[in-house]
Structures are given as C-alpha cells and as structure tokens.
Amino acid sequence: MPDVRTPARPRPDATGGPTAAELLDFARRTAADAPLVASLPLDPEGRTWIRLDGPGGSEAWLIGWPPGTGTGWHDHGGSHGAFAAASGELTEQSLAAQLPTEGWKTLELADGVDRQRKLAGGRGRAFGPHHVHQVLNLSEDTHAVSVHAYYPPLPLMRRYSRTGPVLRLEEVELPEDWR
Questions:
Q1: Which domain holds residue 72?
Q2: Coiled-coil ranges per the record (predicted)?
Q3: Which residues touch 82 (CB under 8 Å, ≥6 apart)?
C-alpha cells in the first residue's frame, strides 16, 4: 500500500524522539482526520493498513479491522507507543507485568495480571517499551479503524500464544515481515 504522509510535530524526549504521551496525542489527532480514515480501503476478510509518518521519527499505521479480527498476543520489540480508535470499537487485552525479553520460551503468569479495556470514538492509550497485549475487533458486523504509533520505529515484534496462565514465545517478526 502507498505511504501517506502526515505533518509531524516533533517535540523530542531525552532520547531524541517523541514521548508516549506525544504519540498518543498524534494517534488521537490522526484518528480524528476523517478524510484520511476514509481513504483506508477496508477488506471484509483481513486487516488492511497504510503506513504513516509519525512525529519525531516515529512510525505510525492506520489499520482497518474487519469484524472478528485481532492481532494475537505480541510486544513491540522495546518501542514505546500509543494507539487510538478512529471508528468502531476495539478491545485491548494486556498484561500488567513486565516480562523478560530474552532467555525464555514459556512463562506461567501470576493471577491478577490480566487487564482489558474497550476503545472507541477517539479513545486511546499509551504504553511503555515492555507492553504485551492483543487488540481485537469483537464486533460481529462492524469494521473498526485505528491509528498506532511507535518510537523508535519497530525493530521487531515478538508473537506469543496463550493457554490459560501459560504464555509461550512463538516467533519473532522483523520489519520486512509486515511491510
């Protein structure tokens, strides 16, 4: 898909890039851009996306979610980020625990680490570099569209499977796997 360029308002943090709060502000403003959101082609079978230029050297994505689709459990390879719903409603399931990033294949999660929130109508959330979650469109008949931004640009994503309290590292994706 073609790149869509959006104006950036960089106000870098101490590492030279935007903070999670600035990424959330960008995601919310971009989610409110009705012509941009309407330009995303929607597919009834699978997610669609357009890569955007985020603020201060971050990367961003406008993503369309058909009913019943989701990401599966994943992290963002050490990047911090944010996302906001532009239309429809998304459910985020996340873990309120910092997981080690290396040296394990299977972890048993403690009780009480599960969190869930619903995001619609411009609502969003920012997260830190150790965030593990999955994002779902649980609707049976309505597409959702959202904006996601990451800094630094995603170096990789770890994908996990989950059975009850057991989280298993399944694969590591590199940027060329999703671009």
A1: 20-96+110-155
A2: none
A3: 20, 21, 23, 24, 26, 27, 124, 125, 126, 127, 148, 149
